[in-house]
């Protein structure tokens, strides 16, 4: 419970800083009649060239990926600025984030850039951890939708992206080490979440 409170405080502080930093941008986008959901969908469109370019021109492909991630920075602050934040909107945002992320992992499997076993296992353990994390942290949280879609593990994606950028642009390869650490952590975390959720259900009976 303490860990959850710390996570929530960190996320709230992070949101406050982002909202303040991007307030001028949010005001500009609002004047253009753009919404957060529009940005969430637009980042997927911007990401599409990555799929066709990654095997031919990795650097150019990663520029489109970077642009997609850059757009993703603004949808949350924009929704809060327009006072239109909702759990349904968060789902659209998170669904887009994870679609981009898993597509990148899948592309790396086919291109054989790194250890395939690490990548395939990550493709398996990541969604499991996301689902269990969401249930563990948000199952009994009030929501305006089906469930509050906030798994609280999305920041690990940034480590994967960072290691990929370092490899593609500077030939610095820490990707497999980082992926191994994340895979190991997610494995233990998913087991813990699975056991914790079932014990909580038993207590509710």
Architecture overview:
Helix content is 80%, strand content 0%. It has 8 helices and no strands. The protein has one domain: Up-down Bundle (Four Helix Bundle (Hemerythrin (Met), subunit A)), CATH 1.20.120. The chain has 205 residues and is mostly helical. Helix 1 crosses helix 4.
Layout of helices and strands, plus pairs?
Blueprint: H1 2-21, H2 23-31, H3 36-53, H4 58-81, H5 87-111, H6 116-138, H7 155-170, H8 175-204
Helix pairs in contact: 1-4, 2-4, 3-4, 3-5, 4-5, 5-6, 6-8, 7-8
Calculate the mean pLDDT score and round it.
90
Helix content: over 70%
Query: What is the N-to-C order of secondary-structure elements (H for helix, E for strand)?
Result: HHHHHHHH
**Uncertain parts:** none
Give the percentage of residues in beta strands.
Answer: under 5%
Radius of gyration: 18 Å
Instruction: Give the N-terminus to C-terminus distance in angstroms.
Output: 20 Å
The count of strands amounts to: 0
Report the principal-axis shape. Answer: flat
Keywords for this structure?
single chain; 205 residues; mainly alpha; Four Helix Bundle (Hemerythrin (Met), subunit A); 80% helix
């Amino acid at each position: 419970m303490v860990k959850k409170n710390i996570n929530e405080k960190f996320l709230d502080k992070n949101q406050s800083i982002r909202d303040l930093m991007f307030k001028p941008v949010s005001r500009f986008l609002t004047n253009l009649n753009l919404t957060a959901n529009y940005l969430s969908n637009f980042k997927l469109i911007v990401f599409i060239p990555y799929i066709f370019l990654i095997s031919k021109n990795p650097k150019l492909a990663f520029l489109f990926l970077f642009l997609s991630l850059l757009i993703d920075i603004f949808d949350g602050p924009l929704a809060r600025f327009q006072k239109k934040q909702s759990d349904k909107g968060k789902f659209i945002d998170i669904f887009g984030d994870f679609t981009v992320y898993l597509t990148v992992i899948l592309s790396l499997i086919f291109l054989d850039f790194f250890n395939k076993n690490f990548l395939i296992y990550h493709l398996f353990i990541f969604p499991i951890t996301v689902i269990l994390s969401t249930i563990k942290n948000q199952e009994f949280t009030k929501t305006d939708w089906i469930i509050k879609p906030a798994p609280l593990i999305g920041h690990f994606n940034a480590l994967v992206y960072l290691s990929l950028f370092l490899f593609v642009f500077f030939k610095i390869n820490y990707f497999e080490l980082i992926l191994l650490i994340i895979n190991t952590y997610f494995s233990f975390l998913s087991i813990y979440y699975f056991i914790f959720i079932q014990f909580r259900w038993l207590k509710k009976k």
